[in-house]
Design the sequence.
């Protein structure tokens, strides 16, 4: 089974549609199956007190100015939709509030994403599940009883889904990746399981691929030195090209677990079995 590879653009575009398009191009050229964004209604996701608090950024001196500077609106998403169709790559987004999920319904998207932070937002989960689109559900910073409830909700709604093992630290330490949770989730919930990684480098993602994940999501950036809290846990273009190539190779190498003598082995067998 091929691994569905997602390039998480998120908010690494820094509010610049040109940067977003460049990232889409990189993802397509690397062999990704989809790119993903994040959509927030700033006034709903954050409190007024938080938004009024100080924060230095390229857009001003408050949290509000920073959050609003990073957010795309309708015109930008229309441009993204057109550009992704032109480049023949799927796109979707993780909504952080109900208004944002309804906003995304304007586009003919094949997929939904539940961010780890939204795993306990029952109202949002119900809205997403009602759409019955294939949904990727991240499980970072969550306990089993919370995942249990989410899985039950999606099953009750008849909405196809897969879980994504994740650790919600940016970047994630290698020793915190806990890749052995992948088969644990698969056995507990009897569903496909992917991996959403935030570590530095590629090795941990290669390890996840060897656990027979069905999807892989990594943050993408044009340059890790760019402004943004997610940049340090992101992969630059050359790295993303390498990631996709190696993950595809690992998938082919895993095989089907059936013991057999390959055609290429037969000739070697004829020679060596005589010794």
Sequence:
């Amino acid at each position: 089974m091929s691994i569905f590879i997602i390039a998480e653009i998120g908010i690494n575009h820094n509010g610049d549609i040109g940067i977003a398009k460049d990232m889409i191009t990189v993802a397509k050229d690397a062999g990704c199956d989809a790119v993903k964004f994040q959509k927030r209604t700033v006034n709903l996701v954050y409190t007024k007190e938080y938004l009024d608090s100080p924060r230095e950024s390229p857009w001003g001196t408050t949290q509000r100015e920073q959050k609003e500077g990073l957010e795309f609106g309708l015109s930008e998403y229309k441009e993204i939709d057109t550009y992704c169709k032109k480049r023949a790559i799927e796109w979707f987004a993780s909504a952080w509030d109900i208004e944002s999920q309804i906003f995304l319904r304007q586009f003919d998207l094949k997929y939904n994403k539940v961010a780890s932070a939204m795993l306990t937002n029952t109202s949002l989960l119900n809205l997403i599940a009602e759409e019955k689109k294939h949904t990727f559900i991240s499980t970072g910073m969550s306990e089993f009883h919370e995942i249990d409830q989410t899985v039950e909700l999606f099953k009750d709604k008849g909405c196809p889904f897969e879980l994504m093992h994740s650790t919600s630290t940016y970047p994630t330490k290698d020793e915190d990746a806990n890749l052995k949770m992948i088969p644990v989730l698969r056995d507990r919930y009897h569903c496909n399981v992917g991996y959403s990684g935030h570590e530095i480098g590629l090795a941990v993602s290669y390890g996840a691929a060897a656990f027979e994940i069905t999807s892989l999501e990594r943050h993408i950036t044009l340059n890790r030195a760019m402004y943004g809290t997610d940049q340090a846990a992101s992969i630059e273009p050359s790295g993303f090209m390498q990631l996709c190539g190696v993950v595809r190779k690992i998938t082919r190498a895993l095989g089907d677990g059936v013991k057999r003598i390959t055609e290429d082995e037969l000739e070697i067998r004829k020679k060596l079995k005589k010794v």
Summary: The first helix runs from residue 17 to 30.
